[in-house]
Every structure is written in structure tokens, then in C-alpha cells.
Amino acid sequence: MIDGERILALFVNAGFSVTDDPSVADIIVVNTCAFIKEATQEAVDTILETAEFKKTGRCETLIVSGCFSQRYGDKAKPELPEVDIWAGVNDWEAVLSKLIDDGRNRRGGGDISDATDNIKSVSGNKQGGFRRILSEPLSTQYIKIAEGCSHGCTFCVIPSIRGRFKSRGINDILQEAEWLYGQGARELILVAQDTSFYGRDIGASLTALLEALLRGTGFPWIRMMYLHPNFVSDDLLNLVAAESRICPYFDIPLQHISDVILTAMNRTPLSAGIYALTERIRKTVPNATLRSSFIVGFPGETEKEFGELRKFIQFASFDKLGLFPYSPEEGTGAYAMRPRPSTRTAQRRCAELMSIQQEISRGLAEAKVGTDADVIIDRISDDPDFNYEGRTAGDAPEVDGRVFVSSGSFEVGQIARMRIIGAGDYDLFV
Predict the structure, then answer these.
(1) Were 341 and a residue from 146, 221, 230, 297 both cysteine, which residue would form a disulfide, CB within 3.0 to 4.6 Å?
(2) Kind of pairing, strands 61-66 and 17-18?
């Protein structure tokens, strides 16, 4: 999303306007993902769908950017001649700047549409330039603190697409964060391939970055996503426990619990360390929300390893959980590993674990009934039974549950204290 917002800002600064209707756009940008085969197929489908606007709409230039372009662009060019420009994750600014410069004398501007993100709001800074074209709601915004990854997990293609881990400087991040706050953002979400690894390549740390954001900005909520279990330090836990403005939300993709599978994945720590980390978080931050994700059906996973995973999920009682059948990706270390559970077996195991997690989630949600929670208002509800939809500090946008608000008058982005009066499997009601 952030890369797409930056691409649109490049065009807006050159005189283009943004439309969310691709049928009237002169230029369409398809910003893609290609980490797993499902995302790759979705990218191809979206490219083909938007290419039709070259026949039925005003589209003159179709641009494909992002990971699909970086990973498959050279191979895909002959098969997707509808695409005019391929922009990778590292060269997109140079490629698109040249396109703009080449066309500057031919026409002064036009309309541009992003076919993958719902970008509606155009926001600028006082100097008149645009850093990003921000997506709605403006009150919740993401900030990328690093790029790439150096871990070398055997199931992942990220290092080959985006390169080794590279942190942004703290002052650079702080400057963008201050700008986002000035645009109306009240929840700042830190993202990277691994946010917990931040700063290790530049003599800094995630804790130091958070402290700078607390000093230098007024965000009432600061949230971290995508922490690696090996780098969740005591300093970080102590800071979260002490600072009410940092959401006590730990999104830690653990991937598995079996030592056999973790070793094959090239993941650390192993099971003992993961059990210890889970208990350390619960002890240091008693109000912590713990979210994780696991890959089911990885090569070598027998009923024994699956049983270990089932037992751990029951032990950990995660507040939020994602489960994904293993997707063999060409070019990764795990691609040739055997034996590999069948897709059907992986899906069955996912369903079994999700059934367990559903019961856990329902119990945790019902335990909140009768308690008070701070809720950020995300939007006016489309459901006529409710006035607004929002989230607690324990819910990240799009991936977690929602709070449905049936009464009161609030502004989007407002954070208000509310009494929980009902609960579903994942959602809360006030």
C-alpha cells in the first residue's frame, strides 16, 4: 500500500489527478504482490482485467509495479504485451520519472488510477509537494521503517525480491511520521519485513525508534506489525509495558513450533525459546494482545509435528491467529524438500486448527463483555443497525476483529472509551 501511495504522489506532483474509476484514467497502475502463488495469480488476473480499459476506457498506459514486476517482469513481458511499463521495487521511481519526463511536453497531465488500492484522499505538505497519496481513513496510517530481509527462511522469496534488510534512519522516519500526524493520522503503524530487526544495520534499535516517536510526535496510538521471535527484546517489552501510547499488540509470525520443521525452515528460536517468549510477553505486558501466524503442511510435517503445533496453539491461547497452507515457491530452499503433505492434508489441518482457535477467540471476546476499552472510530458503518465501526488497541486494521458501535456521535479517527456489551467470535459490540 505504501509503495502505491508513493507512486501516485510522484504522478500528482507532475500534474496528474487521481481517480478511483479506472474507466476514465489515462494511466492505470497495478501495484502487485508475488510472495506466494495465490498473490501471483491475483496479480495476473488484475493485470488482465485492467488491460481491458485500454479497449473500453481511456487508458493509454498500463503500469505494473511491485513484487510481481520485480520477480517475473522479464518473463512476463512476452506473455502480457498489454503492459506498457514494468517498474520493480527498486527502480520504480527512476522508471516512472522518465515516463513522466518523456510525456511532459506531449501533455500536461491527466488522470491516474491505482487498480489495487482504494486511494481516494489527496494530501500534501506545506511545501506544496506530496510524499504519499494517503488512503482512507486518514486517521490510521502505515509507515515503512525498513526494506528487505536478511533472515533466509527457506519458504520465503522476499530476500530475492527486495534484497537484504536495510533500515531507514530514525530522523527520516520521524520526519515522515510528523507529516502523517499533520495530515490527521492518529494511529501510526510501523511495518517492515521484520520490524523487530530495525536498526541493527545502522547502530539503532526498534526501542530507540519508538522512544523517538514518543518524544517527537503526538500519536495516541503507535502499533508494531511483523516482529520476529528472535528479536523481541526485554527492552522492547518493558517499553511497551510502561508507555500507554504504544499499543500492547505483538504480531509475531512464529510459522511453526516443531523443532524439526523450524530447523527445516531455517527459523530460530526453536520450540523452547518460543514457549519462553510467549510466557515472557504475558508476564511483562499483562494486557498484551498476542497475534501470530503459522504455515501448515510444510515439507516434513507428519501427524507428530502437526500434533505439536495443535498442542502449542491450545497452550498459547492466541488473541489473533492466521493459518496458511504451505505454498511451494520456486527459488526458495524449501521448494525441493520432500516429503510434502498433500494440499488436501494441509487444508484439513488448517481447518482443524482454525476450529480450535475459533473457540479460543470466542472465549476471549466474551470475557471482555462488561469491561471498558478505548476504541478508534474507523468509519461510518454500512450496517443500518450500527452507527460506526472501529477497533480496540488489540485489533489491527483489516486483519483483526471490529467493534460495532450502536449509539453516540463520533468523528472518524476519534478514540473514545466505551463499554463492551456484546461479543461474537471475533467482533465486539458497544
Answers:
(1) 297
(2) unpaired
